[in-house]
């Protein structure tokens, strides 16, 4: 569950986000679209504490951030937030010196202090679920780009976050891999995962998103069901963007 109210972000002289209101229901996927520079990545980074919000509030995975909190309390909550909200970066850096299993197990063992045997058993299950059961002992360099990406997703999932965030996950994938990724993500949603995905691909949105948010100039312009936003946008700004999308 994510609830964002009146969220604003000002960095120095620049206003990046203004008055963003948003709810994401559990076990659903929210897609975020909008022109370059509209604030999509910044909003995503606010959702796991990489950017400090300067107005309003944000609640995710049971942790609430408010712009007015003092720095110490804010950072304390960000720490809690990061345990509930995972992020898969556009350039997911796997550790080259660790096997697939090692990459996935590292953080749960060293950050969450969970027993290695239990973590590895869960890691193998997750790898199996994304079709990488046979790759556990391999090293990242011997995997295809799409396989490496799935390892990065499993690595984030191994922390058992309530919410997973993705920034342009298909930008380096061909249409077939993109399709596979959509299938993988929908499988995770069926198992209870909540996700937010920033993407420029309309096809990918159709395949994975339940709801879509259109952003422009740091504002949440229109939020609706995927089919409605893609086929029948109401705001003229959304309409203009969709008309020019591929
Ligand atoms: N720390 C910062 N200080 C000042 N301006 C910033 C900062 N971070 C981001 N911006 C600006 O805020 C705007 C939104 O950036 P953001 O990266 O969120 O856009 P985006 O929607 O993800 O774009 P793209 O589709 O190109 O990835 C941009 O104009 C960017 O230059
Ligand atoms: Mg971006």
Explain what you see.
With 246 residues, this protein is α/β, with parallel strands linked by helices. It has a single domain (2-244), classed as P-loop containing nucleotide triphosphate hydrolases (Rossmann fold). Helices cover 40% and strands 26% of the residues. It is built from 9 helices and 10 strands. The protein has helices spanning 40-47, 71-84, 100-110, 116-129, 145-157, 175-190, 202-208, 226-231, 236-244, and strands spanning 2-11, 14-24, 29-33, 55-60, 63-66, 85-88, 163-167, 194-198, 211-216, 219-225. Strands 6-7-8-3-9-10 form a 6-stranded mixed sheet, with helices on both faces. Strands 2-1-4-5 form a 4-stranded antiparallel sheet, with helices on one face. A hairpin with a 2-residue loop joins strand 4 (55-60) and strand 5 (63-66). Helix 3 (100-110) crosses helix 4 (116-129) and helix 3 runs parallel beside helix 5 (145-157). The chain is globular, with a radius of gyration of 18 Å. Bound molecules: adenosine-5'-triphosphate and magnesium ion. The site of adenosine-5'-triphosphate (ATP) has 12 residues, from strand 2 and helix 1.
Labels describing this entry:
Rossmann fold, binds adenosine-5'-triphosphate, 6-stranded mixed beta sheet, 4-stranded antiparallel beta sheet, 246 residues, alpha/beta, binds magnesium ion
Strand content: 25-35%
CATH fold descriptor: Rossmann fold
What does the oligomeric state look like here?
Answer: single chain
Give the topology string: H per helix, E per strand. Answer: EEEHEEHEHHHEHEHEEHH
Residue-averaged pLDDT: 93
Outline type = globular
Can you name the CATH architecture? 3-Layer(aba) Sandwich
Distance between the termini: 31 Å
Total beta strand runs: 10
- List the ions, cofactors and other small molecules found in this model: adenosine-5'-triphosphate, magnesium ion
Round the Cα radius of gyration to an integer and report it: 18 Å
């Amino acid at each position: 569950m994510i609830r964002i109210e009146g969220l604003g972000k000002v960095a120095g002289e620049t206003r990046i986000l203004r008055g963003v209101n948003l709810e994401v229901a559990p076990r659903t996927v929210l897609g975020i679209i909008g022109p370059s520079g509209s604030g999509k990545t910044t909003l995503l980074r606010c959702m796991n504490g990489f950017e400090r919000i300067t107005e309003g509030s944000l609640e995710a995975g049971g942790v609430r951030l408010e712009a007015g909190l003092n720095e110490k309390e804010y950072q304390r909550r960000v720490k809690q937030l990061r345990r509930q909200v995972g992020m898969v970066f556009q350039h997911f850096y796997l550790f080259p010196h660790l096997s697939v299993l090692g990459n996935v197990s590292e953080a749960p063992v060293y950050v969450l202090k969970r027993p290695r045997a239990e973590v590895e058993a869960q890691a193998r299950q997750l790898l199996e679920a994304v079709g990488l059961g046979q790759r556990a002992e391999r090293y990242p360099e011997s995997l295809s780009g799409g396989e490496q990406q799935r390892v990065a997703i499993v690595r984030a999932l191994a922390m058992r976050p309530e919410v997973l965030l993705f920034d342009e996950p298909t930008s380096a994938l061909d249409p077939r891999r993109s399709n596979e990724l959509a299938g993988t993500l929908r499988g995770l949603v069926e198992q209870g995962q909540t996700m937010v995905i920033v993407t420029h691909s309309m096809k990918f949105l159709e395949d994975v998103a339940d709801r879509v948010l259109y952003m422009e100039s740091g504002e949440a312009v229109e939020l609706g069901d995927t089919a409605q936003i893609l086929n029948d946008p109401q705001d003229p700004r959304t309409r203009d963007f969709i008309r020019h999308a591929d």
